Amino acid sequence: MQEIISAVQSVGFPIVASGAVAWYAYTMQNKANATIDALRDTLERNTIVLTRVCERLGGVSDED
Questions:
Q1: Would you call 8 exposed, middle or buried from its count of C-beta atoms within 10 A (0-12, 13-18, 19+)?
Q2: Does residue 62 belong to any structural domain of this protein?
């Protein structure tokens, strides 16, 4: 906590606040990217499973 107070006193509140917001945005973007990568992996595995199910059921027909 003393480091934050010292930083505000030496460079000013707007600069410290801008740095904190930039760090927060960077951290949230990394978490979002990790979530998207996990979702992409899950969707790819589901696509493989659904393809195998369709093959076992005899394929998909576009005829209505």
A1: middle
A2: no
pLDDT in tens, 8-58: 888 888 888 999 999 999 999 999 999 999 999 999 999 999 999 998 988
- The answer to the question of residue 28 being in a domain is yes
Distance CA 62, CA 64 (A): 6
Specify the number of domains making up the chain: 1
Q: Could you tell me how far CA 40 lies from the centroid of its own chain?
A: 11
Of 3, 24, 21, nearest in space to 11 by CA = 3
CA trace torsion 36, 38, 39, 40 (10° rounding): 80
What is the pLDDT at residue 15? 86
Q: Token digits for 41? A: 């992996």
